[in-house]
């Protein structure tokens, strides 16, 4: 995954593959795919940047709370806390004791659950019946051609 960083930082227009690859693409892993998608989403969030202005800096609220206080119950925080940060796919922000109480699943275990859930809830995209028929015909022709070439090899 980290080998994609140079391509991402260079603002590459198209990267063919990388997510989920193991051993340089010799095999793949659903768990690694999910974890890599999480990394890509974090990279996207970082590269989208952050708006910095009087409203986002919340300077009046910092003055209002003062040293030693907390911002958890300010109007500004309450309006933004659920949307201001990247919402992880498989990472966790739980404190250690809460993480253990929740089952103590590591990232690979959570990624395993996630891909199982994604496949369970998969819905095949709707295709125009004409397009679907053309695709079935193409696949049948290719299978026939591959079968014939395998017999003559």
How far from one another are the termini?
39 Å
Helix fraction, binned, reads: 40-55%
Order of helices and strands: HEEHHHHHHH
Quote the beta fraction: under 5%
Strand line-up in the sheet with most strands: 1-2
Name the assembly state.
single chain
Radius of gyration: 24 Å
Largest sheet properties: 2 strands, antiparallel
> What general outline do the C-alpha atoms trace?
elongated
**Unreliable segments (pLDDT under 50, ≥5 consecutive)?**
none
**What is the average per-residue confidence, as pLDDT, rounded to a whole number?**
87
Number of strands: 2
Number of helices: 8
**What class would the helix/strand composition place it in?**
mainly alpha
Topology:
Layout: H1 5-9, E1 21-22, E2 27-28, H2 30-47, H3 54-57, H4 59-65, H5 75-80, H6 96-101, H7 107-120, H8 129-152
Antiparallel strand pairs: 1-2
Helix pairs in contact: 2-7
